[in-house]
Design a protein that fits this description.
The protein is mainly beta. Helix content is 10%, strand content 67%. The protein is elongated.
């Protein structure tokens, strides 16, 4: 249900961005498929701040002898509640008429917890994205690249059947191949962007998807204000994690979505 709600928010945000784009095009009397070539430009985003809504789910296999509530060979699943946190990003974009390249880093130190069973999760995620795209239709680009995910997971789970807590820590570094699409249109001092990426494919993470929708306003020369919404979901499996005094496989899925605001310097 949590992931469905996140996806619904993402779809709604996309609809709002596209509607705003149509309104601007209509107001300025411009067709969205203007044949005018876009100028080459470099945009540096030193500050992109996100107020994400964070949720996580972790599967902890039971201990031998039935610990963990799942019996021998079973597992215990703990799902955190959502919590409002903050994240920081920075990036660089190169744009031409028929191609673009993007480099961006995300830093997020997040935490979440729940009761019954008592569960806490602290995660320090460092995500680095490299992608590029070529225009295949007016305003539509095919994209490809990779995403490096470095995450530290610190979990603590109360096991009432054992009368104690167990904890585990892992720091996987994974590289995900990514493919996707991007839609971009200009209307006077506005630039509208929407993109979707999917990847992982078991090469790095099990599943890795993201989507972003934003509008950039060139309020003054060489400056861009960005407002939008972003969504990220990934699921990973890490073998041989120390859970208490035992080695277990840990499966973690995390979502991160929320509004984003920042500014860019245009060269």
């Amino acid at each position: 249900m949590k992931h469905c709600f996140s996806s619904l928010l993402t779809v709604c945000a996309a609809a709002l961005v596209l509607l705003a784009a149509d309104r601007v095009f209509a107001a300025e009397g411009q067709a969205p498929s203007s044949p005018k070539a876009e100028p080459f430009e470099v945009v540096l985003y030193p500050i992109l701040v996100q107020a994400p809504i964070f949720g996580a789910e972790i599967d902890l296999p039971s201990l031998p002898g039935g610990g963990g509530g799942g019996g021998e060979g079973g597992e215990q699943t703990a799902t955190s509640g959502t919590s409002l946190n903050s994240a920081y990003m920075a990036g660089l974009t190169l744009r031409g008429d028929r191609w673009f390249g993007e480099f961006r880093g995300d830093w997020a130190d997040l935490d979440a917890s729940r009761e019954s069973p008592r569960f806490s999760l602290e995660t320090k995620a460092r995500v680095f994205n490299v992608r590029g795209g070529v225009r295949v239709l007016d305003g539509l680009f095919a994209t490809g690249g990779f995403r490096r995910i470095s995450v530290r997971l610190d979990t603590t789970l109360n096991l009432p059947i054992l009368g104690r807590d167990i904890s585990g820590t892992t720091e996987p570094v994974l590289y995900d191949p990514m493919i996707g699409v991007e839609w971009r249109q200009r209307a006077g001092s506005w630039i509208f962007d929407a993109n979707f990426q999917g990847g992982g494919f078991g090469v790095g993470t099990d599943v890795d998807t993201s989507a972003e929708f934003h509008a950039g306003w060139r309020v003054i020369p060489h400056t861009e204000i960005r407002l939008g919404y972003t969504f990220l979901y990934y699921k990973l499996t890490v073998a041989d994690v120390s859970i208490g005094s035992f080695q277990r496989t840990l499966i973690s899925s995390q979502t991160l979505h929320g509004p984003i605001v920042g500014f860019g310097i245009v060269f």
